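Sharing a chain and its predicted structure for anyone who wants a worked example. Both blocks are below, sequence first, tokens second.
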Amino acid sequence: MPQFVSELNSIAATWFSFLYHVVWQATLLAVLLLVIVRLRRRWPSPLRYWLLVLALVKFGLPPLLSMPTGLFSQFGAAVETRPLIAEVVSHRPVELGLSISSAVEPAASPTVSMGFLTGTVSPVPHQPVVERRVSLLKVDAAIWLMLVYITGVAVVAIWILRNFIALQGAIHRATPVDDGELSQRFAGLAKRFGLRRLPRLVLSRDPCGPAACGIFRPVVILPEEAVSLSASELDAVLSHELAHHRRRDPWVNWGQLLLTPVWWFNPVVWILNRQIRSVREDCCDDLLLTLGLKQV
């Protein structure tokens, strides 16, 4: 048990040191880029978008400073500094005899003879072993912080997983659009975007807005009420969702979802994710203008 707690203290201390350096470095870069994007709204939306994505990527990288507390230093030679649990101090007599008879009675006193010095040395009584406890078993505060962190990661991850399952259920219950005028319109717009793989188009009965999702199986979700829109409005909605697939936005969105549980405690990450989603919509609108497609 003491060995286990000692190892756990060491792991928690290493984790806290690593997390500390990643937090201040990534947060500093994110705040700087958020301010730049805020002040330079007239910059092209793709430039502002990838600056924000760069800030997000930094949260997934180890610290850049080459310090003893950095990531790669943990693989080098380390000096073991485990806390001392108990120390056994043994007090044993040191006996010195220069001229002592081989047959000495236990109660007799040995005679020491050294030239002109002759005397009697009283034997030192044998003392028992004395045990002294130096320090008690101690759980560092870093362990409690690590437990709180792990709990937060689990809660946020479960929340994201629940939303993902709900989305997959909505797609499974949706009606696929495989033929008809809407399917032909959708295929013609996808061709204009230069998509090599045509995403699936489904009409959802669940209350949801238009959405583009899926990495290996791209999908465009439309609510059933969207079919009542005019032709130009429907083209604008479909084009906007196809623009997300053209830009590979679902890939970046998955990166955001994976990093959110890891940095759930950092408000800058939440602000950064919200800003990325906002600028992402501007990028899609600008792409529609570039391709000469109308917007709603």
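Comments welcome. The two ends are 66 Å apart (CA to CA).
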